[in-house]
Design a protein that fits this description.
mainly alpha, two-stranded antiparallel sheet, 7 helices, 2 strands, elongated, DCB_dom, coiled coil, Mon2/Sec7/BIG1-like dimerisation and cyclophilin-binding domain-containing protein
């Protein structure tokens, strides 16, 4: 019996037992809630894994990035496994699609495990960005500047990794978490 048929039958059972048998109605309602939660979690888990793999392999078309980010945001209310899969996708998402990401990327979670994992993921991303800046500085004469940033008395020229570290979105994301 498929989940859809089972769901329909439980709904019918709830309607028929409203006045006659409250114990049966309560059990049917609980079963229906559990069925809905199981189905949603299972689908969300599969979707999160698929989207994570697309992001890691750079198989996600840039034109669909907004939809994927929205799906990730909506899935943050799903189970712990789904939330952790989303966090696993973030480093690759930021590495492969950095130029296309704008605005709020992460949603707050009430789960301590997810919050700790998110903080560790963000810390790894920050370290990775600044490791690239250090490596770029070692070969500064070989790498052209591609942007600039304001300083107290003018501007300073920035290379690619330094520009990534300076980006307003990155700074805002990090300051919001710390």
């Amino acid at each position: 019996m498929t989940a859809q048929i089972l769901s329909s039958e439980l709904g019918n059972l709830i309607q028929e037992s409203k006045r006659k048998n409250t114990e049966l109605r309560n059990a049917a309602e609980k079963s229906l809630d559990e069925l809905k939660a199981l189905r949603t979690t299972s689908e969300a888990q599969i979707a999160a894994v698929c989207l994570q793999r697309l992001v890691v392999s750079r198989g996600l078309p840039r034109s669909r990035l907004r939809e994927v980010l929205e799906a990730f945001r909506e899935a943050t209310s799903a189970g712990l496994d789904v939330q952790l899969k989303i966090l696993q996708a973030l480093p690759s998402l930021l590495q492969n699609y950095a130029d296309d990401l704008k605005g709020e990327l992460l949603a707050a979670s009430k789960n301590g495990i997810v919050n700790n994992t998110a903080a560790a993921t963000l810390q790894q991303l920050v370290v990775s960005v600044f490791d690239k800046v250090v490596a770029e500085d070692k070969i500064a004469l070989e790498v052209p500047t591609i942007g600039e940033a304001p300083i107290e008395n003018g501007t300073v020229q920035l290379r690619a990794a330094a520009l990534d570290a300076y980006r307003e979105e990155f700074c805002t994301l990090y300051s919001d978490v710390t």
